[in-house]
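Long-time lurker, first post. I've been practising inverse folding by hand and with some scripts of my own, and I keep getting stuck on stretches where the structure tokens seem ambiguous. Below is the full token string for one chain I'm working on. Before anyone asks, I'm not after the true native sequence, just a reasonable design that respects the backbone. If someone could post their per-position residues I'd love to compare against what I wrote down in my notebook.
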């Protein structure tokens, strides 16, 4: 099969969130399965110059946006055996950030329309165009719209992946004809109309041929009001094409046996070496070096969606326990101030690193004993999968991909690979943490069993990529 994979971001070129991790790893694995998959993304200003110097210009063309005729330069770079195309237009993409600009509606309408024209320019007619989140949601509509007059598009199928339903790309309806160049026939509730605006995420859901989210549980959750972000009605209408496929992790990046960021490499057969990583982490953050002191960690955005409200309510009680706590991440000022305050109150127990560092994140995964992820909503999450790979036992709330990937420890059967709690309740979180701490302190043999089980589990892309291929094939 021929697949054109479209995304607003992809590692190692540009990253703001989990979409970049998926787009930077899934296509490589699909390509290894024998399919011709190519990736397209904008030529963002913030892409490192070292990558830009390797790009080769392979074409140029123009797209119409309403009355505008806009230039598209096509540059190509082969990375790890996969072709990446970068669409160049300085007016739209020479910006400080990929999103959050006043004209995002126009910028990503341009990108979507340019994508649909790209196959003719690079002489690559795909069987599937795979789109991701609101940034490329319009691609699915444009394929259907252009197929009305151009038979080239009539046998091209599209897949749309929802990574996070919260961010939808909602813009003023005035851009429908002025920018998108679309008929007002599309402005109704069964199409892209969203109250009095238009919604790019909704366009993806309505006009794609295959629809998926990034975990099986999240695929069910978004049919209901709490998770549906006011799109649950249209999702239910299209649920016959909806499936859940859990994300994987790139084990070339996240592997404690080969990771250059950590103090000492190890695997499930050499767990004693993990202790050296814990000691290095305690030393780095100026915590007392104690092997038997449980080290609890969080790597997260500091937002209510990530469960920081729960932490806030019981943080004092958590820090009464015999433990050390490390938090890495940035977010809302309220939560940053909270952790600064508690770091002053508990200087021997808490370290709040209110920034993000990829290298330090790896060290935290490798050095931590327990990884805390009490999210209110978590479409998939990869942090819990990385924690498993590094032998840090996750504590999660049972939602989305966390429910699909973390199975609670059963003290009678010894089954499970972590700890979980069901309700969005601070004291359930506290009780579950205390349960984990008790096992850590009193039954290290079982704790090591859980560590090994997590490290041995297959959470790479091999299984999930086959599910995507199966989805593609079902549409042809």
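-- Answer (accepted) --
I ran through it position by position. Result:
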């Amino acid at each position: 099969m021929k697949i054109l994979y479209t995304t607003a971001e992809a590692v190692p070129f540009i990253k703001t969130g989990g979409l970049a991790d998926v787009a930077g790893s899934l296509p490589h694995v699909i390509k290894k399965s024998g399919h011709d998959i190519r990736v397209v993304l904008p030529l963002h200003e913030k892409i490192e110059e070292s990558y830009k110097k390797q790009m080769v210009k392979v074409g140029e063309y123009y797209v119409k946006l309403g009355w505008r005729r806009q230039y598209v330069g096509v540059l190509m770079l082969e990375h790890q055996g996969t072709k990446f195309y970068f669409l160049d237009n300085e007016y739209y993409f020479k910006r400080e950030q990929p999103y959050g600009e006043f004209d995002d509606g126009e910028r990503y309408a341009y990108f979507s329309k340019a994508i649909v024209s790209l196959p003719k320019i690079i002489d690559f007619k795909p069987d599937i165009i795979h789109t991701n989140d609101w940034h490329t949601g319009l691609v699915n509509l444009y394929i259907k719209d252009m197929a009305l007059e151009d038979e080239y598009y009539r046998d091209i199928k599209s897949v749309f992946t929802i990574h996070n339903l919260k961010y939808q790309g909602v813009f003023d309806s005035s851009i429908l004809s002025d920018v998108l160049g679309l008929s007002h026939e599309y402005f109704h509730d069964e199409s892209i109309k969203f109250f009095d605006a238009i919604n790019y995420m909704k366009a993806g859901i309505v006009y794609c041929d295959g629809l998926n989210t990034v975990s099986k549980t999240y695929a069910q959750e978004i049919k209901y009001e709490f998770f549906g972000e006011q799109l649950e009605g249209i999702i239910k209408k299209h649920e016959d094409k909806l499936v859940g496929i859990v994300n994987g992790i790139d084990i070339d990046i996240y592997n404690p046996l080969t990771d250059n960021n950590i103090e000492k490499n190890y695997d499930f057969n050499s767990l004693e070496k993990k202790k050296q990583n814990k000691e290095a982490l305690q030393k780095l953050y100026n915590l007392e070096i104690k092997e038997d002191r449980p080290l609890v960690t969080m790597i997260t955005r500091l937002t209510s969606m990530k469960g920081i409200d729960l932490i806030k309510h019981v943080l004092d009680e958590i820090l009464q326990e015999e433990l050390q706590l490390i938090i890495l991440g940035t977010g809302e000022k309220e939560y940053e101030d909270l952790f600064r305050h508690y770091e002053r109150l508990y200087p021997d127990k808490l370290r709040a690193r209110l920034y993000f560092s990829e290298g330090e994140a790896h060290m935290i995964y490798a050095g931590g004993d327990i990884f805390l992820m009490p999210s209110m909503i978590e479409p998939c999450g990869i942090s819990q999968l990385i924690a498993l790979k590094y032998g840090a036992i996750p504590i999660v709330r049972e939602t989305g991909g966390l429910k699909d990937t973390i199975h609670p420890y059963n003290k009678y059967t010894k089954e499970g690979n972590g700890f979980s709690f069901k309700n969005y309740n601070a004291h359930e979180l506290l009780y579950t943490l205390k349960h984990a701490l008790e096992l850590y302190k009193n039954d290290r043999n079982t704790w090591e069993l859980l560590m090994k089980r997590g490290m041995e589990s297959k959470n790479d892309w091999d299984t999930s990529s086959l599910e995507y291929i199966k989805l593609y094939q079902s549409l042809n």
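A couple of notes from the structure itself: The radius of gyration is 23 Å. The chain has a mean pLDDT of 96. Happy to go over any region you disagree with.
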